[in-house]
Write a structure and sequence with these properties.
mainly alpha, globular, 71% helix
Length: 511
Amino acid sequence: MIAGRASTLNPKLYQVSLLNLSLIQLLIVIVNLFLKKYRDNYMKSLILQIVFMLLVTMPVYASGGGGEIADLTRSGMGIMALLLFVAAYALVIFEEQLHLRKSKPVIVAAGVIWVLVALAYQGLGRPDQAHAAILGNLTEYAELFLFLLAAMTYINALEERNAFRALRSWLVNKGFTLRSVFWMTGLLAFFISPVADNLTTALLMGAVAMAVGGDNRKFVVVACINIVVAANAGGAFSPFGDITTLMVWQKGKVSFFEFFAIFIPSVVNWIIPAIFMSMAVSKDKPDVHDETVEMKIGAKRIMALFLLTIVTAVSFHNFLRLPPAVGMMLGLGYLSFFAYYLKRKENRLLTGDNPLDVTGHNHATFDMFRKIAKAEWDTLLFFYGVILCVGGLGQFGYLAGASTFMYDGLGHTTANVLVGVLSAIIDNIPVMFAVITMDPVMSHGQWLLVTLTAGVGGSLLSIGSAAGVALMGSARGVYTFGAHLKWTWAIALGYAASIVTHLILNGKYFH
């Protein structure tokens, strides 16, 4: 097939095609050797090989980098950087089997890739370009890091105040039928994830489904799939619901209120597979649990402060043209002062109003810095590694090539739909960051489309989103990759319908 096309290809490009195909074959051999230990996990092996094919072949059809970025996709250092990223991401995909935190391989890969970038640009006589480029990536990460740190601290504070356990207890004790619980957990997941992240929402609602379902494996599986789809769909129409939407918002591609234009497409994305899956859920009533959990003092006020923090972040971005992360850190200041008040009040309760009694149970009081320490540091450092890895590959010209292949070759709509499919195979964070770094010239409608597809595309596979991976860990052996795959056809219908809905309803944004 390649030989037949040789006459129509540029000779140099043809040589690069052969080189890349040889690299693909070598990579697949390495992957198969690497997976000997996990031969029972065939689907992951297949998916990983597809990822390698996509990553290595995409630059073959690229026309080269643009602007000041040199086209180094054919250089030894460029190919080495690409292979390093693929190898690091392979370790991320097999985190559960290897028991190796996902942040570790990408942090190492990021450092080495930027060493290669610096050496390559020094060889071109442009050493300052690598320095300027990495500062831009670090600024991107700093904004994301501070925003998420504040949000995670609030979520941890609410968890410590029993806000989520109280909600779960209320749902479990109400005596709803299994089908009612199926719809309620999905509905709550859809509306909680725009404020809390989809991972926290999925874990909370998943715990409810497992507590109600008990030994009913069929119900637990379908309920978990429904929760994953709902949490991802709910997170797609809010800047706070997912890392990808946050990236788009912070980059100024879509304003805060414009995100709500994809609310109805997000509802369609969830409701269609939910209707099909609900037919597999019985109307039996599960056993009622007697456990009652009350929220601790200050829980409702922390919720109010969290809402005020969100308003502050939005105001900073919309009215002051300042990064929303600065508004979130101001909101963290709100919490820190309330934590001081709460700690003093709880100390008085524990020590019998004796301020001189320092032998009381101070460890039981509210401590904000413990909430900061409990942030998902592995996730935060993973974002660092991903952003710098993708940024480094961009300096070699791979993102410019991918942009040419996807957005110029396939067209904006097709490319953005493909982004959603890729986000089910690869994590949506590097995919979306790559799109933002490519920065294709698109209408608001197309930016909303890629926001939608990157947010909900991960629902197609259980490994496609943080919510799915987290629930596979919580419902280990019950909610599995294969169990999710049985309903992928219904999720794909919802995915397609949500795209069509967006194209019809939001036509004004495409001009």
